[in-house]
Amino acid sequence: MTFKEALIKASNICARQEKCISDIEKKLYDWKVEPEISNQVIDQLIKEKFIDEERYIKFYVKDKFTFNRWGKIKIKWQLKAKNIYGKYVDEVLNNIDKEEYKDALAQLLKNKRSSIKETDIYKIKSSLIRYASSRGFEPDLIYQVIDESIEL
């Protein structure tokens, strides 16, 4: 695949949906684009603002929290898996409204609690803690929300 073909194909993808560098690298690799051409395509996409890591981080954090109801830990790990990390990630994560974040966790735990048939309080608590942890919420907040808002 030539530089121009790869650039057109990659820019079309970026125009439809926000993508990060690693997403495009993976696509270019799948299309069997040579590494040198791949680097040129990515540089061009960044130059033309098709790829913007900061913009991507903002959208990713907002989407994963709002729609997937992931906690900050899981979001951060998933971004790290895409080779995106640093102070800007922490800054965007810290901009999530604390009350909204806590309310989201409380709602998740209430929904989960209603599906648990167990009667032993310790097993219920254990199940809720595991569930919230798997969603990427912080342990202190999990314990706090369980103690404050969940009827065991």
Structure, explained:
With 152 residues, the chain is mainly alpha-helical. Helix 2 (21-30) packs antiparallel against helix 3, helix 4 runs parallel beside helix 6 and helix 7 crosses helix 9. The longest helix has 18 residues, at 98-115. Helices cover 74% and strands 0% of the residues. It has nine helices and no strands. It folds into three domains: 3-47; 53-94; 98-149. Residues 52-93 form the RecX second three-helical domain. Belongs to the RecX family. It is found in: Cytoplasm. One of its GO terms (biological process) is regulation of DNA repair.
Strand content: under 5%
Cα distance spanning the termini:
60 Å
Q: Overall pLDDT, averaged?
A: 93
Order of helices and strands: HHHHHHHHH
Weakly predicted, low-confidence segments: none
The structural domain count equals: 3
Short description:
The chain has 152 residues and is an all-alpha fold. It has helices spanning 3-16, 21-30, 35-47, 53-66, 72-81, 87-94, 98-115, 121-134, 139-149. It folds into 3 domains: 3-47; 53-94; 98-149.
